[in-house]
Specification:
This protein is an alpha/beta fold and 146 residues long. The protein is built from four helices and seven strands, in the order βαβαββααβββ. Helix 1 crosses helix 2.
């Protein structure tokens, strides 16, 4: 089977524009639950995830789970959101040990930073989000299977 990917790129000139990009992403991909965030250190992965969480009704603080690997948040209507940071993982086995597959199969929102560390565990239906900085702002690209 041959897969084709569709990519959409949105420019966020300032950090305050991330809320609008988050709204647009949620509108374009309403049934998506697994999101893989790619970008260099400091590109804005955590900041964009915070904007998405806010759009989904998370009221408390959100932060990168750098040391705990996963944080859980509650959004509007009691929805669950899981925020992963795989930067410190040394192997895919470490992600399996925390029950990653169960999280990904839960039907809840899963936002993953540094997914390249667990590439072999990603489900085929995830949304790939690539964030690149430039002089004009952040270029946020969304790639999905048809």
């Amino acid at each position: 089977m041959k897969l084709f990917f569709r990519t959409v790129t949105i420019l966020a000139p300032t950090l305050s524009d991330l809320a609008a990009v988050a709204r647009e992403m949620l509108k374009r991909y309403p049934d998506q639950r697994v999101f893989a965030f790619y970008g260099s250190m400091g590109a804005g992965k955590t900041t964009f995830i915070k904007a998405i969480c806010k759009e989904l009704g998370v009221e408390g603080p959100t932060s990168s789970p750098s040391f705990s690997i996963v944080n859980e948040y509650k959004g509007a209507g009691g929805i669950k959101l899981y925020h992963f940071d795989f930067y410190r993982l040394k192997s895919e086995a470490e992600a399996s040990d925390i029950g990653l597959e169960e999280y990904l199969d839960s039907g809840h929102y899963c936002f993953m930073e540094w997914p390249e560390r667990i590439e072999g565990l990603l489900p085929p239906n995830h949304l790939k989000i690539n964030i690149k900085e430039s002089e004009t702002g952040r270029h946020i690209s969304f790639s999905s299977c048809p």
